Amino acid sequence: MFESFLSELTPFYEVAVLSHIRPDADCIGAQSGVCSLLEAHDIKYTAFNEDPVPANLQWMKHAKKIKLLEPGSLEAFEAVIFVDGNQYHRFTRKGDIVYEGTPFMSFMIDHHPHPDTNFDVVCSDPTASSTCELIFRWFEQVGLDKLDPSTAQSLFAGMMRDTGSFSFENTASETLKTAGELLRIGNFTPNVVVDKMADRSLGTVKAMGEVMQSIELTPGGKVATIMMTKEQMEYCAQFGEVDTDGFVNQALAINGVEVALFLKEAQEEEVRMSLRAKRDVDVNVWARDMNGGGHQKAAGAMVQGSLERAREEALDVGRRHNPDLFRF
Question: Going from the N-terminus, what domains does the chain have, and what CATH number goes with each?
Fold first, then answer.
């Protein structure tokens, strides 16, 4: 599938490379990998994201060259590569920037299930642990000599993030083999990437403290919820950039908890939700009932209403799909 992807790209003088909003390590790592592949094939590109790259990911190759996506940013491009997302709305909050029927040719490379059918050229594999793993496979086909050590570190970081440091169920033998190859090519040890990813601002640490005080368990103790208000976010941001990625995993780590929900007030009457699960629970179906989506063990959604209302809606959805979690 990578051969057709590349052959369709070569006629274009310059392409845009766009990664999803609220970027994480798999997102920026995969975008970095795509940019390196384009450079190796002498294809000019400009990288975009609607949000700034988080501070603990700015070490990744090409990260500092990623421009903020603005209205009209894509008008000069005849081709756009969408990285680590399989629906247009994952890449912008503004419908006039990216929408179905755009004049450019659209390419998508991603590992999430249920891809949108409106992209022109698709490289999708939901069995892959991460989009970074897919990008490595692309390098394998065109030649690993084109994969430089800095890009290898970026791809490794993305895989590490989406596999929970290679502890989630999406960690297959092929995933570990790929990780080993990246370590060999990049000539580094895992702690190098762990140390870079672990950097946290004082604002993030304060936010963690605020959120952990909100922990609630449902009767029976199998579902945990944590919440953060907009006011708490603004207060903590005074002390430095706040990155809440991974907060939900702290709630999931509680003994006996099978599902964890992190609800963050994005703006008035709008709540962003992260869902995580252990074992046999599929939180993707929970998220899809709330117009979101993702993976079986990790998904997200945006819900209208207050934090409490969003929490009750999510728990009601959970009761429909997994009533056993709510029995005690």
Answer: 2-196 (3.90.1640.10), 202-326 (3.10.310.30)
